[in-house]
Amino acid sequence: MRTGIEVEEARRRVLDGAQPLPAEVVATADALGRVLAEPIASTRTLPPADCSAMDGYALRADDLTGATRAAPRRLRVGFEVPAGRSAPRPLGPGEAARIFTGAALPVGADSVVMQEDVEATDGEVACFAAPAPGEHVRPAGEDVRAGEVVLAAGTRLGAAQLGVLASLGRTVARVHRRPRVAILSGGDELVEPDEDASGGRIVASNAYSLAAQCAEAGALALNLGIARDTREELERGITAGLAADVLVSSAGVSVGDHDHVRPVLEKLGCRLDFFGVLMKPGYPLTFGRFDDGRGPLVFGLPGNPVSAMVTFELFVRPLLLRLAGHRVLTRPVVRATLGETLRKKPGRLHFVRVALARDGERFVARSTGNQSSGVLRSMTLAQGLLVFPAAATELAAGASAEVHVLDPDVLAAPEPR
Ligand code: AMP
Ligand code: MG
């Protein structure tokens, strides 16, 4: 087991060999945010036939050659094509057909004039301009041609993709399975939120924030509850999570007398890959795996609420995204100007909780307050994590630094007042 490694190395080790989970079939209506495990080739041509883009009259462009406002051409209106119907017969010479948006052009017609550009009088239309052939016509296959791959495997399904699947008649889709994450809280002091939290007891809030982080990453969280600081209880808890894809245990990973997580994991056959990442908050992060993939990927997160959330954000989230089939595993990163001077001791990289304000084209970052790893309040205000490099001791006001954006709303242009 490696100890005290850099953030980048820890990330590499976590993602090493991780592959998207096998596929499952889900209803298209439930597939928002999932990642396609198959390419979608169309069995349909869309639109299936040349059809009208306007309410108006379908005709032959040739029949209107030379038409002007001063010298309109008159065409007989032979029949009507309502949306969703096909024409009763081909269009004859010198003839127009009343047509509505989306209706298939009659055989023989090659263009459409808008109803605004004609004068209709009993059974006839007077046309004031000659359309170009193809005008106001949506040609067959303009959107999709039969046989064409419309969505590649690996595509993230958003609103437009679900609409395309529906129009291809695909009511189900094969997508990568969502990772299942078992969450275990460990500590003698921990209670549930509705229990008495006086006298040194602490609410096991990590189960709530970590489950929410799982959900935000598209994973399914299973709360295993609280295990006391005994080997027996931890072993029972961890064993309950062995069927998950990922096991996240919070607390008990340091080197204190009551920190039994690591020895219990090893006893159960988990090979610890690393302990300790040179960062703050979150140094005591532990990661391990079972040989031959016969168990979950295991994270022992530090117990402090901010350390747990930040290490989840940096290491667990990218893994969950990879397992679900996503290709982009990182947050947007912006360069922000420091709105105030930040200081720290040299040695470890710090992720500083910051609020981001837009100032024209720039972002200005300010600390959200007390950066102690127990102060979850400053996490509630954090829109980003600012990277304060390991060797640096000061980032002066006005200097710039990278910020991992947690809240994409900060990228949006401000509303005009
Ligand atoms: P530990 O990692 O066990 O030394 O815990 C560090 C700090 O995090 C202690 O103050 C714990 O009470 C707190 N803590 C541990 N587990 C949780 C949890 N599940 N939710 C909230 N705080 C916790
Ligand atoms: Mg503890």
What's the N-to-C terminus distance? Answer: 56 Å
Mean of residue pLDDT? 96
Question: Which small molecules are bound?
Answer: adenosine monophosphate, magnesium ion
Tell me about the largest β-sheet: 7 strands, mixed
Principal-axes geometry comes out as elongated
Which value, in Å, is the CA radius of gyration? Answer: 31 Å
List the strand order in the largest sheet. 1-19-21-22-18-14-17
Counting helices, strands and paired strands, the structural category is alpha/beta
Helical coverage, percent range: 10-25%
Count of distinct strands = 29
Q: What proportion of the residues form beta strands (DSSP E)?
A: 25-35%
Number of helices: 7
The low-pLDDT segments are none
